Amino acid sequence: MRTLILYSSTDGHTIKICQFLQKIIERQGDEISLISVERESDIDLQDYDRVIIGASIRYGKHSPLIVDFINNNAAMLDTLPNAFFSVNLVARKPEKRAPDTNPYLKILLKQISWKPMQLAVFAGKLDYPRYKFRDRLMIRLIMWMTGGPTDRNAVVEFTDWKQVEGFGRLVSQMKQSPTAST
Ligand SMILES: Cc1cc2nc3c(=O)[nH]c(=O)nc-3n(C[C@H](O)[C@H](O)[C@H](O)COP(=O)(O)O)c2cc1C
Question: Whose CA is nearest to atom 4 of ligand 1?
């Protein structure tokens, strides 16, 4: 099967998660295209048998490019086995890591008509040294307010890789188009 993994990532952590998923899916001999949403004009969904979309959160939002891609391709997405995952720091708290408890995923699902067959929320990476001054200040303030790390040198990967692995196994099993199963 040919799988498209489409992503939006600012600092590369969502790409790392996508590459991890890619390895799991490739184990069964499937072909993967890992493509940034910035290159969405190169994509023809008809070329694929399965689609996974992943996007990180920046200041409360998924990239508008991802939202637009989903809205412009909702009908086609529904014809393929499909999945979506969100990456954010709120999800470092296990009680905010489920599709129905993560505020960003809940908002996204209201903005789009597509109903992904599989959903996941992964905790992201905190990397203060990498951030620009203003971003570091803002994220430290948010972390201070929510009980997270505030040391300006902190680099913490909160991602639960076992959770990502479980999701990878699940999506690599998706073979039938949702319309074909109804
Ligand atoms: C400028 C900036 C703003 C962010 N805003 C949020 C936010 O509003 N909520 C949240 O949970 N995480 C927020 N994050 C955390 C990112 O979602 C997290 O670091 C994620 O791993 C980034 O993935 P990426 O490297 O693929 O973009 C923010 C990170 C940065 C750098």
Answer: 58
Q: Which CATH architecture has domain 2-124+159-176?
A: 3-Layer(aba) Sandwich (3.40)
Enumerate residues lining ligand 1, CB below 6 A.
9-14, 56-60, 87-90, 124-125, 131, 135, 139
Which residue in 127, 172, 142 sits closest to 9, CA to CA? Answer: 127
Domain parsing of the chain, residue ranges = 2-124+159-176
User: What are the structure tokens assigned to 25, written together?
Assistant: 């899916």
* pLDDT per position as a tens digit, 90-143: 999 999 999 999 999 999 999 999 999 999 999 999 999 999 999 999 999 999
Ligand 1 atom showing the smallest separation from residue 124 Cα: 21
